[in-house]
Amino acid sequence: MEKEMTKNQITKFQLFFLLIQSQIGVALLSLPHAVEKSANGDGWISTIIAGVAVQVMLIVYWQLLKRFPALVYTEITKKVVGRFLGKFLNIFIYMNFILVGGLATILFIKLINLWLLPLTPGWIISALILTACMYLAVSDIKIIARFYVLATSLILLLWFTSVLSWFTPKDYQYVLPIGSSGMKNILLGSNNSLLAMLGFEALLFFFPFVIDNKKGVLKTVSMANLFITLFYTYFIFITLITFSTDQLMQMREPILNLLRGISYNMIDRVDLIFLSVWMVPMATSIITYLFAASKSLNLGKKNYSKAVVLNGCILFLITLIPNDDAIITLFNQYVSYLSYVVVFLIPTLLLILSLLMKKHEMSESR
């Protein structure tokens, strides 16, 4: 593992874009609808709170990872709690990345079917998407990082396109008075935002590959989190002042509806043009989960590509499950519970135990 990391090191600049691309995906397009159900006009506050929660976890990750700078998440578990219990926890970690990746792929397919290719069978779209994702996921992390840096330009395209929507009517009364939804509803809304921001846990697998990983990494990941938080908050705010509560409740992807209202003499259906381009950022989150799931098996570099293909096939089988709204909602609910355990609970417990037992990488080598 150490030789592999020496050859495939990434810079902190690349880590910044790796985290951004891992977090931004299909969930952004429907997030205003999800947050509106709980927080109403205060949805933008919910996103800020979610960003603060992510920052707290990034600090927890940093404190844990700097104690084991050369180990990935599933290796740290075995170092801290022992091989038997560590392997047991790693089952949950692996399942989380597979199921979240499967859910992201299902939502991706459903979006393409709904907006672009309504007559194309879902399994064909799934096969095409996962083949492309597997092709990149089998590459070295350095190549993945370079691709993510280039793909970030497409995120800036979304922001630029959204600027054009400011010429459409806006009503700030939809978000006033601030805080009228109550703290309970705002916190419920932050739960939806937090789930949409998942992907930052990929740091637990990226960290060992970062050049000189003990210096400046916390600052880098904090800047990435700030970017994501402001990015999400901006889009939720702009949709909140564009559409009424009743309208947002009826829209599955409010951001696409926002772009749908933009048209010019030479360009029509900006939403479809954007969605065609946005498929790349949506695919990057799937690539990250394929990478993390395959790395969590700890099979070494020789068997890593086989693990990626195997996991890609598992994701394909997951997408064959009937994907009506009720099943997707139930699937999303159970995946959310598992994500809270793997992303928040287990790393926190590992940090506490490593501090109490004074375990770190140097102590293991003595």
UniProtKB/TrEMBL annotation:
It is found in: Membrane. Keywords: Germination, Membrane, Transmembrane, Transmembrane helix, Transport. The chain crosses the membrane at residues 12-31, 43-64, 84-109, 115-138, 147-167, 193-211, 223-243, 272-292, 304-322, 334-356. Pfam families: Spore_permease (PF03845). It is a multi-pass membrane protein. Its main location: membrane. The keyword Lipoprotein does not apply. InterPro entries: Spore_GerAB. Belongs to the amino acid-polyamine-organocation (APC) superfamily. Spore germination protein (SGP) (TC 2.A.3.9) family. PANTHER family: SPORE GERMINATION PROTEIN A2 (PTHR34975:SF2). This is GerAB/ArcD/ProY family transporter.
